[in-house]
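User: Structure tokens for both sequences below?

Assistant:
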Amino acid sequence: QVQLAESGGDSVQSGGSLKLSCVVSGLPFGDYCLGWFRQVPGVERERVAAIDRDGRTRYVDSVQGRFTISQDSGKNMLYLQMSDLKPEDTAMYYCTLGARMDLPEWWTTHWTAKAYYWGQGTQVDVSS
């Protein structure tokens, strides 16, 4: 069974940096894609970044150049390095695994699809 657990969320000032981590266990057979979503109360969950098994990445425009997604396959870890944080980055950040998805599919499949597995989330607060 796929399980994900995030850590690293914190309160920081604008311009600061944080690194989120996610332990991934129970990896499925076949193709999958890992990534991060974020959500602010009352707003639709938003894709932030994704990485496929070959290391290809994709970012939402608002974080391009500031965030870096990476994975350590040997340790079953997923990371999100966040730099130059802005107040609009404040959100609950969720680690996700999209089973049987490639990168384009992870980026376009609605987040409510059953193929997504989720962590419990880690809160990031950025003050101005």
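Moving on to the next sequence.
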Amino acid sequence: QVQVVESGGGMVQPGGSLRLSCTASGLDFGGYAMSWFREVPGKKREGVACITYTGRRQEYSDSVKGRFTISRDNADERIVYLQMTNLKPEDTAMYYCAAGPISRWYSSLSPASISVWGQGTQVTVSS
């Protein structure tokens, strides 16, 4: 069974940091890119970061560039992280981990390119 499961969400004050984790299973990891998306009620789901299987390539949305870092676990190919720093209230959202075919790498921040979605983890940035 192919699935991805997120963890690590929570509430944090503005300027704080949080790390999300995603564990994938049932995938041919070499054939997939891993992405993080976020969604706020009433708005479109936004791709924020993606990474190749090797971890050598990452892409970020302009809204998080310089503040968020996507990475892969060196010891466990199933795990992908999203390190979020200097968090702002506008980062409040449900965050989703996702997997999409590597053949669609150049659109890995587009929901249309995703094959597998996690259930999401809530991140709230508030004082």
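User: Anything stand out in the second?

Assistant: The mean pLDDT is 95.
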